[in-house]
C-alpha cells in the first residue's frame, strides 16, 4: 500500500528533528571540554620524584643502619623507594 504524502512528511520531519537534536548534543559536548593547562611542571616533578626514590634506596643500602628512622622502617624502605620510582613513571605519563 502506498504511503501518503502527510505520513512521508511526518517521517522526514521526525528525522530532521532527531538530526538537529544530535547536532545540538555534539555542539554542547564540545563546549564543555576544557583545554588542559600548561604541563611545564611535569618533567621537573617526575625527575625529582624518581631521583628521590633512587636516592632513598641508595642511602638505605649504604647507611640505613646508621639512620634511626630508616633502621626502624626495615624492609619498608624498599617499598618507599620503589613507590617513588613508580610514582615518577605515573607522573611521566602526563607529559605531552
Automatic annotation (TrEMBL):
<dbReference type="InterPro" id="IPR009619">
    <property type="entry name" value="CrgA"/>
</dbReference>
<feature type="transmembrane region" description="Helical">
    <location>
        <begin position="75"/>
        <end position="95"/>
    </location>
</feature>
<keyword id="KW-0131">Cell cycle</keyword>
<dbReference type="GO" id="GO:0051301">
    <property type="term" value="P:cell division"/>
</dbReference>
<feature type="transmembrane region" description="Helical">
    <location>
        <begin position="41"/>
        <end position="63"/>
    </location>
</feature>
<dbReference type="GO" id="GO:0005886">
    <property type="term" value="C:plasma membrane"/>
</dbReference>
<comment type="function">
    <text>Involved in cell division.</text>
</comment>
<keyword id="KW-1133">Transmembrane helix</keyword>
<keyword id="KW-0132">Cell division</keyword>
<dbReference type="Pfam" id="PF06781">
    <property type="entry name" value="CrgA"/>
</dbReference>
<keyword id="KW-0472">Membrane</keyword>
<feature type="region of interest" description="Disordered">
    <location>
        <begin position="1"/>
        <end position="36"/>
    </location>
</feature>
<keyword id="KW-1003">Cell membrane</keyword>
<protein>
    <recommendedName>
        <fullName>Cell division protein CrgA</fullName>
    </recommendedName>
</protein>
<keyword id="KW-0812">Transmembrane</keyword>
<feature type="compositionally biased region" description="Basic and acidic residues">
    <location>
        <begin position="1"/>
        <end position="15"/>
    </location>
</feature>
<comment type="similarity">
    <text>Belongs to the CrgA family.</text>
</comment>
